[in-house]
Amino acid sequence: MGKKVTVVGAGFYGSTTAQRLAEYDVFETVVLTDIIEGRPEGLALDMNQSRSIEGYETKVVGATTGTDGSGYEVISGSDVVIITAGLPRKPGMSRMDLLEVNAKIVRGVAENVAKYAPNAVIIVVSNPLDEMTALSQIASRFPKNRVLGQAGMLDTARFTNFVAEELGVATASVKTLTLGSHGDTMVPVPSQCTVDGKPLADALSAEKVEELVDRTRKGGAEIVGLLKTGSAFYAPSAAAARMAKAVAEDAGAVMPVCAWVDGEYGISGVYLGVNAEIGATGVRKVVETPLSDTELAGLKEAAEAVRAKQADVANL
Predict the structure, then answer these.
(1) For residues 174 and 200, what is the distance between their CA atoms, to the nearest angstrom?
(2) What does residue 227 show for φ and ψ, rounded to 5 degrees?
(3) Which residue of 124, 133, 204, 261 has the fewest CB atoms within a 10 Å radius of its CB?
């Protein structure tokens, strides 16, 4: 205990993330902020009233912040800051459609994090994910290892769920992995996927695997299309919360995240979805995973696709 984590943005994603973090009972304080007056305070009060029922002691603090930076002093001393602020997708929108509007929001948040929580690890979940992660590092001027994005954890979870449902097996028996971008150049890695320890290729045809890979790439859009308003938040919040927990516990958990790549896989100078060892300083190191030639080519293609967009965000 004694750790402090802040979630910026009290929409469905942010508030669910805050609830998960509180229920872990590994943080002393969870701070939830939003620009909608009273919303974070009301949600925090509600969560705190569930403590005796769920048996945790973590205190949730809600605070309204302003676009002028007012109210951000509440995040002082945070070990981790999760940025969920920004607009969600609507049906028919791609993540890239949110670039300019969310860039302004995320830049302002990152600058305030640097001012009030200069030693924090930043976890970005705002879309478009890869670009907003790069922008958060630029705006905060934090070391690149202390800024990472949540993407691979979610995409891998989606892939795992689809495989388990297709085979009618427990999700715990399925191990999958997705790398690359959080978008069209996502790179699911079937060569590293197993079912009960056996290669995925032994359980499913190549055609079926590709079908599930394609569904994984479009997993977010599928949910947006069904919801009509808003986007996924249960699985995404679980992924972000687990990343924050990994930072707090400093145990070196290895998980797929959006991290700065500088030489690994023959790729340099870009934020990209890779396996990484996570600790109190953020990304301890990128963990290179054996890939097939096709998967490696896909990862390099993803790197070039996001590199151009990440260069653009510096001026947003």
Answers:
(1) 9
(2) -75, -30
(3) 204
Residue type, 19: Q
CB-count exposure of residue 56 (10 Å: 0-12, 13-18, 19+): middle
Q: How do 282-286 and 268-279 pair as beta strands?
A: antiparallel
The 3-class SS string of the chain reads CCCEEEEECCCHHHHHHHHHHHHHCCCCEEEEEECCCCHHHHHHHHHHCCHHHHCCCCEEEEEECCCCCCCHHHHCCCCEEEECCCCCCCCCCCHHHHHHHHHHHHHHHHHHHHHHCCCCEEEECCCCHHHHHHHHHHHHCCCHHHEEECCHHHHHHHHHHHHHHHHCCCHHHEECCEEECCCCCEEECHHHCEECCEEHHHCCCHHHHHHHHHHHHCHHHHHHHHHCCCCCCHHHHHHHHHHHHHHHHCCCEEEEEEEEEECHHHCEEEEEEEEEEEECCEEEEECCCCCCHHHHHHHHHHHHHHHHHHHHHCCC
Closest by alpha carbon to 113, among 73, 156, 155?
A: 73
CB 79 within 8 A of CB 4: yes
182 is catalytic: yes
Amino acid (1-letter code) at residue 45: L
pTM over 0.90: yes
pLDDT digits (tens, 9 = 90+) for 282-310: 999 999 999 999 999 999 999 999 888 88
Q: What distance in Å separates the CA atoms of residue 6 and residue 21, rounded to the nearest whole number?
A: 10
For 136-190, how does the pLDDT look when each residue is reduced to its tens digit (9 = 90+)?
Answer: 999 999 999 999 999 899 999 999 999 999 999 999 999 999 999 988 889 999 9
